[in-house]
Amino acid sequence: MNAVANAATSVVATAARSVVATAATNAPLRVGVAGTGSLGYHHARLLRDVAGVTFSGFYESNAERATTVAKELGITAYPSLDALLANVDALSIVTPTKFHHVVAKAALEAGKHLLIEKPITATVEEADELIALAKQKGVMVQIGHIERFNRAIRAALPHVDHPLFIDSDRLAPFNPRGSDVAVVLDLMIHDIDLLLTLTGSKVSGISAVGIPVLTPSIDIANARITFESGAVATITASRVSKDRMRKLRIFQRNGYLSLDLAAGTGEMYRLRTDTDLAALARSAQPLEAFVERVAIDAPEGEPLKLELESFVAALRGESPVAVTAEDGRDALAVALRIVRDIERSLPAGRSSTAAAAHSRA
Q: How far apart are CA 15 and CA 140, in angstroms?
């Protein structure tokens, strides 16, 4: 196990001991939410009912929104972040990305365990600071890369075996939410995290292109990523498409997996063990003569609910952290490399506009 993994394991173990000690005093674990926009609302809605914790309430800087959420969900709105932190053991941070660092730092300094929505922060330097602070305080940090809990991904993971090539498409119609940052940080980062998870390898090279269309930031992006394992991936993300699509195709030596992340379904085609490759090379044969379909499946479950339940399980020392802060940092680092590569390829005027938009994130 490498040094980073050892350090992460140590932090998780320390956090688990801390939480278990709290549980031993019969004091229920208290959780809260910072930020109740469109996604944060659902964090609060679901955390109310997650077994094993008490939901304390939330903080929302928009007073009108706070009143609405408190009334609709029947939960407590705290007047400030400090007031919320005084009444929780753990916090889910669902603010805009540019506020992740300042909110997380305040929570960590107060000794609180964290679930931070993706991306972990706006910069790698901010992520590194949070990781160091979490280790210093002996608290746990999980990152909200929700696609890890997608039914199709959960079904595919047991069958993934040293991928050679991965092709990913994530397309969506335009939505102003999240458009203050490049589509790489808004949408593509989901697939970047999945690529790092599926390959289990570090990135060795990146070549990317993209353009702004409706915003000053990059709205469409395509990247070719090579890994130290020898795997190659192509990923495309767009937030200016007519239709929605979230598909992932994995090619490996023994077969092919096709996953529809939007539907949560997938299928696998595997080379038959009795296939005569020499005979196949000599003449065409029906697909079923050398390929068999393998059923893949996983239990149903709302990904966000599963993510929150995994956070609570880790808090209670019942399971390891599903997506560590280091995982979040690594995905962010790759995403920012892609953004920089795209900005270098843009015409001078567009490049400066995209860079300025990114710096405001």
A: 5
Q: What is the pLDDT of residues 203-221, one digit of tens each?
A: 999 999 999 999 999 999 9
H-run or E-run covering 109 = helix 100-109
**91: which strand partners?**
32, 114
What is the pTM assigned to this prediction? 0.88
Q: Can you tell me whether residue 43 is helix, strand or coil?
A: helix
Domain co-membership, 127 together with 223: no
Whether residue 321 lies inside any domain: the answer is: no
For residue 113, the domain's CATH number is 3.40.50.720
pLDDT digits (tens, 9 = 90+) for 222-258: 999 999 999 999 999 999 999 999 999 999 998 999 9
Cα→Cα distances 150→44, 115, 299, 318, 337, Å: 20, 18, 10, 21, 26
Asked whether residue 205 is assigned to any structural domain, the reply reads yes
Question: What would the DSSP string read from start to end of 202-251?
Answer: -EEEEEEEEE-SSSSS--EEEEEEEETTS-EEEEEEESS-SS-EEEEEEE
Is residue 322, in this structure, part of any structural domain at all? Answer: no
Task: Note if the bond before 119 is cis, omega within 30 degrees.
Answer: yes
Per-residue pLDDT of 166-178, as tens digits, reads: 999 999 999 887 7
